[in-house]
Design a protein that fits this description.
By secondary structure, this protein is an alpha/beta fold. It is built from 12 helices and 15 strands. It is globular, with a radius of gyration of 26 Å. This is FAD-binding FR-type domain-containing protein.
Length: 410
């Protein structure tokens, strides 16, 4: 139990998921010991529990240790039944159709699995037998249910993800070249190539024909629920992603886009999207998506994109940004109409201003002052940031505006 507890720390899971995964399977042997430790009634003279008469299956003539299985067998059946069902679901036909490499080494896997049904904001488990036969890793789904494929974005930070990157051809040289191009602000031509791979926009598509090995076999299990599924039940949705934590909101923003075109937004009337990045190349992960969603907005007040860059920028880079931004229609870093903000957001001020705008009637025109406006905050990112956002959101509650907070957990 000490080993299992020690490897459950989030830093261990992030840097060496294998240690967490394999040590937690020691629980199987722990349960065997729990079942068998009282065999033979080697501990004698134990007083009968006070609830013996309440539960008739406790017999004073029989050692209690022999009967413990009656209470433990049911969760055991559920656990092993779930593992068997996972294997059955995962073996259904799945094809890894495309692998795209984004700046800073983030990989996008696009898979085709006709039997896989999901809703925006959910997540799944992925197994790549060639990389690790027994490991299943959780990733957020970044495609929308309306897309003809299932996609996930994977950042190369641990042993498994780095080995996976090497296997599909997202080698350090490819990542370094793409990241450097993003830093220089170079828009890659559709016919450009890096090590035999075609480049397009803000990513490089891995070309299996340029390598001696085809794309690996991938198995997926899921989907599994997440708090952000409830985004359409709030009148105002505040979506906050930090770094790669933006992935669940890629799916949600696309889904909102599709539903907006069909006029099926439910209770949702406004969306505030916040993305906090520590470096410029990270903007390339979802640059195309944000551009498309922003350009498709018929109502300029429905979706507001707020992007913050926390990286310290040298004087030369800042001068280039100022020169290119002067009089330009689009931001020089993100190519969005929305300008990039520098530093960290002041969450207390943001939520206070949001509450004031709602109560003043400017934010949601036509809303009745007798009703209570629901503002849902959905967050994915580090715990420290989650704590500050949650505190700011809940402190902003008033008689007419109800703020809620939900954090993505794996």
């Amino acid at each position: 139990m000490v080993i299992m507890y020690s490897t459950a720390h989030h830093k261990v899971r992030q840097q060496c998921f294998e240690a967490f995964w394999y040590t937690h399977h020691l629980a199987f042997f722990f349960m065997i010991g729990l079942y068998t430790h009282a065999t033979g009634c080697f501990v004698r003279g134990t007083a009968l529990p006070s609830f013996t008469n309440t539960f008739p299956f406790y017999n004073p003539d029989v050692c209690l240790g022999y009967l413990s299985w009656r209470g433990i067998i049911w969760p055991g059946i559920l656990y092993f039944g779930e593992r068997v069902w996972r294997e059955i679901r995962a073996r259904r036909a799945t094809k890894l159709n495309k692998v795209l490499v984004h700046p800073s080494g983030a990989m996008e896997f696009r898979m085709i699995k006709p039997s896989f049904k999901y809703t925006a904001g959910q997540w799944l488990f992925i197994q790549v037998p060639e990389v690790s036969r027994f490991e299943w890793h959780p990733f957020t789904i970044t495609s929308a249910p309306e897309d003809p494929y299932v996609s996930v974005h994977i950042r190369q930070v641990g042993d498994f993800t780095k080995a996976l990157g090497e296997r599909v051809g997202a080698t350090p040289s490819v990542v370094a070249g793409l990241t450097q191009a993003a830093l220089k602000g170079v828009e890659k031509d559709e016919k450009a190539s890096i090590n035999g791979m075609g480049g397009r926009g803000d990513f490089v598509e891995i070309d299996p024909s340029a390598t001696t090995r085809p794309l690996p076999v991938v198995r997926i299990d899921g989907p599994y629920g997440a708090p952000a599924e409830d985004v359409f039940s709030s009148e105002v949705a505040v979506l906050v992603g930090a770094g790669i934590g933006v992935t669940p909101f890629a799916s949600i923003l696309k889904h909102i886009w599709y539903r907006q075109k069909r006029g099926r937004l439910g209770a949702l009337r406004r969306v505030e999207f916040f993305w906090i990045c520590r470096d410029v190349p990270s903007f390339g992960w979802f640059q195309s998506l944000l551009q498309e969603v922003e350009a498709a907005q018929m109502d300029p007040n429905f979706l507001r994109i707020n992007i913050y860059l926390t990286q310290k920028i040298d004087a030369g880079t800042m001068w280039n940004i100022v020169v290119n931004d002067a009089g330009a229609e689009f931001d020089p870093l993100t190519l969005l109409r929305t300008r990039t903000m520098y530093g960290r957001p002041d969450w207390k001020s943001i939520y206070s201003n949001l509450r004031g705008a709602i109560e003043g009637g400017q934010y949601l025109p036509g809303a009745s002052s007798q009703l209570k406006t629901r503002v849902g905050t959905y967050f994915c990112g580090p715990p420290a940031l989650a704590k500050s956002i949650r505190e700011a959101a809940l402190n902003a509650n008033s008689a007419t505006v109800a703020f809620s907070f939900a954090k993505e957990h794996f």
